[in-house]
């Protein structure tokens, strides 16, 4: 299955910088963005082992809070568009 993700330029640059830093830390030439995104999806959906899926309460809470903020921004944007 293919998923396309559009990122704002500043997020794209930040992700590229993170990948470059991860490559240095792993002592490899590069860490592809697609590898990072696949690992994020794996951590969210599979875990290692499966019973440890998002076991870290802080990460889980931060993700849930970010999701709620993102959903609220979309709702606010839609409501603003309807008013104009």
Walkthrough of the structure:
- With 84 residues, the protein is mainly alpha-helical.
- The protein is built from 3 helices and no strands.
Q: What does the overall shape look like?
A: extended
Helix fraction, binned, reads 55-70%
Would you identify the regions where 5 or more consecutive residues have pLDDT less than 50? none
Number of domains: 2
Provide the gyration radius in Å.
16 Å
Helix/strand order: HHH
Number of helices: 3
Chart the SSEs and their pairings:
Layout lengths: L8 H18 L6 H13 L11 H27 L1
Summarize the structure.
The protein is mainly alpha-helical.
Characteristic terms for this protein:
extended, 84 residues
